[in-house]
Amino acid sequence: MTYPARLARGQRITVAQQLMGLRRACPDGHGSIIHVGELQWDYETQPTPISRIYKIRIRYRLEKSPKIFVISPNLRDLADERKIPHLYDQALQRLCLYLPRTGEWSTTKWLADTVIPWVNLWLYYFEDWLQTNEWRGGGEHPPEDQKTKKRKRTECRKSVRSS
Amino acid sequence: MTTNPPSFAQQRYLSGMLELLCQSMELTATQYQEAQAKYEAVSNWLADSDDPRLASGLIFPQGSMRLGTTVKPLGRDEFDIDLVSQLGYAQTDSPNEVYGAIGSRLSANGTYKALLERKNRCWRLNYAESSGLHMDITPAIRNVICTNDGLLVPDRELSDWSPSNPAGYADWFEERAKLRPTMLFVEGVTLRADIAPLPEQIQLKGPLKRIVQLCKRHRDLMFVDDNTGAAPISIVLTTLAAHAYERLARTARFNNEYELVAAVIRAMPDFIKIDESSGQPIYVIDNPTTDGENFAERWNDHPERAQAFYRWYGRMLTDLDKLMEVHGRDNVVRYLGEHIAGTRDAGKVANLVTDRVTAAREKGLLKSATVGLGLTTGQAVQGNTFFGK
Prior knowledge:
- Chain A is an alpha+beta fold.
- Chain A is built from 3 helices and 6 strands; from the N terminus they run αββββαββα.
- In chain A, the strands form 2 sheets. Chain A has a 4-stranded antiparallel beta sheet with strand order 1-2-3-4. Chain A has a two-stranded antiparallel ribbon with strand order 5-6.
- In chain A, a hairpin with a 2-residue loop joins strand 1 and strand 2 (38-45).
- By secondary structure, chain B is an alpha+beta fold.
- Chain B folds into 2 domains: 8-27 and 174-362, no CATH class; 29-163, Beta Polymerase, domain 2.
- Helix content of chain B is 46%, strand content 15%.
- In chain B, the strands form 4 sheets. In chain B, strands 1, 2, 3, 4, 5, 6 and 7 form a 7-stranded mixed beta sheet that branches. A 3-stranded antiparallel beta sheet of chain B has the order 13-12-14, with no helix packed on it.
- The interface between A and B is large, with 61 and 50 residues.
């Protein structure tokens, strides 16, 4: 799905267009272009109807990776001293949603079609992890040693690609 | 912390979870078939007897297996089947003689002899531990004065006969179970053959039977440490739920099945007759299919049993109400385990749902909306790999 239609395939999507897409995907959210070429979008979501309501913030600067934060609740309180999997930053509660440089995300993709559903998926497996202590959403961990050239793939690797 | 009002989507999701819990706590198809085969074998053995009372008799299941309301005991892979062995030509025999006739026939078979245990009102066959099966065989004779083809079964002390009507009761229950209450919002849920449904798409398979199972499991959980025998007996829960369900199915309308479950349970005590004319309450829950069987009989010489019923009733309603106030799937699963269904089945169902979400994701069939992941509405979830430490 493309939000403003008639966008050529493979064409880079502008920040203003992304904002329009987000407004259609989550009309209850709100956001704006905060700097030239950078948007911020806040919205609320639930991974299931029995879940908590999570407040999410997306910061996206063109040509950079979109940054996704959980504003509330405090995930560390929920995790009760356990280290939360698949976070770039435990304190900032920044979610790791996709594998960089693999095309899962690119500037030709819509945030509303990729990141927004992935946030729900992350939150689903997070609540599942809270209950079972097991991350069942698969994924990869970055290399522990930054000097290692080859990317180490941990045992839990499970890349899910749908067509 | 953010709280949200009980929502329609939440209730629908929860009733889907309750259905999965009931599926998890009942006999599996394999266990059911195994029980069936064993029951037929016993049945044949009794019928092949030289004793004309047995040879002309009938053996048939009664209780939860016949009603479709089985619930496995908490935390154990065991189950009971209740059979009635109705003897012919035995109208003048005492309960003791009838009981003895069944016992001696069973003892004449080496296999059964080794499994046989004498119980208060019935014979019990304890099958190999691996199967976890107990079969209780209650003797019975035809009740010639009952107009509903009722039976007589030994009373508690085997000294006399009491009226009962297991087959008639099963028909009565089944008639009520067939009723379908009016739902205000019926959503066309199309299930795909290639993907297992998620809770918001799952409807209660036979709401009355599911309600009875939930009541029984909640009772088991609440009285797990109580060995005084005060816990409300299954036939009381089943009968009251069937009456309440019938009335509501004929008169009320519901937004969703969760509302229905709570409303049926709320109405259950309306069908207990209480006679206070003697100063002390006399409780009556009539067997609707035969005269003279009061399912609440024991409440009248053990008032604490009546109290236990009302305590259970209050707790069940509160637990269902509070479930709506629990947020966070992890908290809901924990709550279902501790208060409604037992931790084992709650954990099993939670895992099952996650497996289904993962399977849908892998097939590219998962969708996402701000009210949650699902299979029917929202944006398709594209492939991704969670990254990061």
